[in-house]
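Protocol step 4 of 5: obtain the predicted structure for the target chain.
Materials: sequence only (see below). No template structures provided, no constraints applied. The aim of this step is simply to have a reference model before the mutagenesis design in step 5. Sequence pasted as it appears in the construct record:
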Amino acid sequence: MTHSKGFRHKTRGLKKDSKHAHGLSNILTQYSVNDEVVIDIDPSQVKGMPHRRFQGKVGVVEEIRPRSLVISLPIGNKMKQISPRLEHIRPHRGSSVSVGKTATKTETEIKTKTKTKAETTKAKAKTTAKPKAKAPRASKE
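Step 4 output (structure tokens):
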């Protein structure tokens, strides 16, 4: 028998249904442009399934469509764009979608933090100044 070279070859144990959580929570999540998402393939839904090389990759939402999203992914030194359906996408845990969009910092907070860091480094530099070197001793001859 010849070797199968189909789109889903060697995927028998890649994503088993038993360890994958199903439900509507990933489908009902509201995404916006520039949100970070993770490609998480749902094997029970074949439509809109991305290639298995994208499993677990983190990408950025570029465009929102009625049943799918356009996501740009860095693969090597290129940026690939894929459009998987919502069943195969979940929010990235470190992104603002999962935190409730409260983790964004204002510019003034960032400026004050950088100022305080600069002041503390200057103070440390003053306290850790090197003592003056002593003159060499004269040799006894």
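Step 4 remarks: Strands lie at 36-39, 58-64, 69-75, 78-82, 89-91. The longest strand covers residues 58-64.
Proceed to step 5.
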